[in-house]
Amino acid sequence: MLGAPGTEDPLAITVSHQILARLLPFHLLLDPAGLVLAAGPSLAKLVEPSPLIGAPVFDVLRVVRPQRFDASKGFQTLFGKRLSVEIRALGDAKSSLIFGIALELDHGGSPHIFLALTPSVNARTFIEEHGLKISDFGPADGSADIAPLLAMQEDMLEDGKKKSLRLEMARDAAERLANHDALTGLPNRRALMEYLNEILSQNAVTVLHLDLDKFKEINDSLGHAAGDAALKHTASAMVKTLGREALCARLGGDEFVGVLNGQWPASQLHALADRLIAEIMEPFAWSGEFLTVGASVGIASARPEAEMNADKILHHADLALYEVKRLRRGKALICTPELLAAQDSFQNMSADIRRGIREREFVAYLQPQVMAESGEIVGMEALVRWQHPERGLLTPGDFLAVAERADLIQELDGEMRRSALDALVKSDHEGTPIPKVSLNATIRDLTAPMFSESLVWELDARNLHPSRVSIEIVESVFFDKNATQITEACKSLTKEGFSLSLDDFGTGHASALSLVNLPLSAVKIDRAFAAGVAADPQREAMARSLVGMATTLDLEVIAEGVVDDADVKIFQDMGCRRFQSFHFARPMEREAAFAWIKARTGGSAANLERDFKDAPRVALGQRAS
Description:
The protein is of the alpha/beta class. The chain has an 8-stranded mixed barrel with strand order 14-15-17-18-19-20-21-22, surrounded by 4 helices. The chain has a 6-stranded antiparallel sheet with strand order 2-1-6-5-4-3, with helices on both faces. The radius of gyration is 48 Å and the shape is elongated. Residues 1-15, 139-151 and 603-625 have low confidence and may be disordered.
């Protein structure tokens, strides 16, 4: 620190001058009265031979900015502010403008004024105009504008703070966006999984996995805005019912999850889930009307010692949810060890079915359809069997429910069609031709794009005509929401040359109007009405009514499941001529069926050929015209 003249320590001022000269060669040191006490060597070199030391500072320089500077008040009013000054001795030189800042130095209780100055142009320009050398510039100078630099630094610091705040806010917003559902504001799947994985290692946890009922109907009929309103309503209902201590999250779509701390008694969980379902079912307002949705809930719990992760506990809750939706929507179900064991069995069986499909273990067994009076074979129905390599021959009751749940029915149908049509071709080659084979079609088949066309391709590949195939559909398809589409698919099949029969007639939902509108050629009386009809007057009355309805519409009637000749006689009296049951023949594998036909016909197949030998062959795509 510099002292007043005459009082400073000589060594101290020498060292100070050396430091100042090295760092700021353009500085000025003033006493409180404004007289120049010392100057940087480069500045002194510029103003020689003009007197500098001891001169009033305003004889040496003029303050350009701030423009309204009052010299009478001295630099004390400008401490810390940016300055622009002109060195009078430099005259009108373009680079006479100097930037600076005034600082107060206190030494020994006496205030001094320190002007840190620097040229306003770069060093090369300043050197060229004023005859200086590079060595006249200190390492901290370099034509740097000290005052603007300090101000800029201050601005940059302030701007940095603002940017840091904005960055922090943006980071918070991004984190919230990454971890929260934009529509409901609830934590999303990512946040849920992180939370579950953390808490499962510390505490017992109970998870409620919720799925909305009738949500698709709202979305489809009223639009996504109504669906969004339903989702927001559900989120509010969850927070209200489960409480703020629970984590409520949206998995996506119409699926939500609630996470409760601890393991709860089953009775309390059911009561809580019932309250949640009831709250969700409360009507909510949307666009001037009130809408309602339902909900089903699957529940799973875990303790830390179970070493369960987020995926596994959600999977357990999802299993319970699937089961409750399959059995009774609008309820809650807790995942139990028995349910997990059943799921393991299902997984093993579905995997075995997939393997069996790959290995072509599913084949068509053939059951004859006969004319009772003449014994004539009019066709055979293809019935699926599984030739399991370890469990032997399995019937549909052993695997069909699992295949349906595993979404493998269409693949099984494809294998059945392949096996049945191959049998049809083989029967022709063996000299025991089957007049017609009946194939079952499901709702999925009839609503699948190009179903009719794909059947025609399979027949053409085997040089078979559609008149050799009857498509059997069950009555329940007409109760499906796609009934109109199914009706059109049936018409398309008959245009291609396939015949169409209604299976299990009397047990489904078909009406007389459905029978009129559909291009049917036959109906099959279900075994529930046919078996034992001779011994049951009520069953006979029902069967007589069904046969009468069909014959009135000029439809062939096939009675399934008759058990003896007395049943056959009753149906013959009603006008039914065709039968399919164990009384005549059981379903048989292909070679056994050929042998049965040969035995029935005495080795001659001529009478079996007359129904189809003259069927015309036309190119693909021309049959519907």
